[in-house]
Amino acid sequence: MTRSAVSKPQRRTQEQRSAETRVRLLDATIECLVEYGYAGTTTPRVAERAGVTRGAQVHHFGSKTDLVVAAISHLAQRRTEAAMQEIGRVRAGGDPLGTALEFMWELHQGPLFIAAIELWVASRTDPVLAVEMEKVEPYVNNAVLLAVAQLVPNEMHRKNVRDFAYTAMDTLRGILVTNFISPDPARAHRRWQRASAQLNLVAKTVMPDLSVAD
Q1: Spacing of C-alpha 2 from chain mean position
Q2: HSE on the CB side for 4, CA within 13 Å?
Q3: What does the alpha-carbon distance between residue 171 and residue 199 come to, in Å, rounded to a whole number?
């Protein structure tokens, strides 16, 4: 094979390099939110975590607010993608509601949910963050609802399933937030299983004809 026949790797354009730097900064912001909390997430810390210079960070995001506002949308996109990927591995079997509840548990594990919690709390006293969170949270919630709807596709149950999913998410998030005080994943899961049993029982009372055939 001649030297000319060997394909050379394509050089990245300036636009591609810029986009990659932005993603690294946004991913680093999420990691810092998880490790240091919102108060401890600083622009120098994010730049160091992303492996870029402070000048590059300032070029893309002039302030912590600019950086975190952009990270909110980035985080929402990653949470939405996680919901879609997770549902692709789920099969309803004979208990679609039980499967939906376990799906929600899995979806709320890991760093993405912790980062979201940090931003929810920070938004209470930061109106700029609150506006951004209010914009993106419906998209994340709708992704979860769409995923649950795949497990219970009967249109006659649509409103009840939506109410069921929202109530389940509110319950689960409450359990996980209180677990931050004295972290114990096993205990949190036991509490969720207990709540799930009650939620499943109530839902099947409202939708007594629910079956895998739905």
Answers
A1: 49
A2: 0
A3: 10
Rounded Cα–Cα distance for residues 50 and 27 (Å): 8
DSSP state of 5: G
Q: Using the 8-state DSSP alphabet, how is residue 89 labeled?
A: T
pLDDT at 8 over 70: no
Instruction: Supply angle C-alpha 117, 59, 51, rounded to 5.
Output: 65
Q: How remote is the C-alpha of 168 from its chain's centroid?
A: 16
Integer Cα distance of 153 and 100 in angstroms: 12
DSSP state of 1: -
Tell me, yes or no, if the pTM score tops 0.85.
no
Type and span of the H or E element at 193:
helix 185-206
Hey, what long-range contacts does 129-138 have (CB within 8 A, 24 or more apart)? 129/65, 129/68, 129/69, 129/72, 132/69, 132/72, 132/73, 133/72, 136/72, 136/73, 136/76, 137/76
Determine the residue type at 134: E
The pLDDT mean for the chain works out to: 86
Q: Which two tokens stand for residue 7?
A: 């394909």
Residue-wise pLDDT tens digits, 113-166:
999 999 999 999 999 999 999 999 998 888 888 888 777 767 777 788 888 889
| H/E element, 146 | helix 127-151
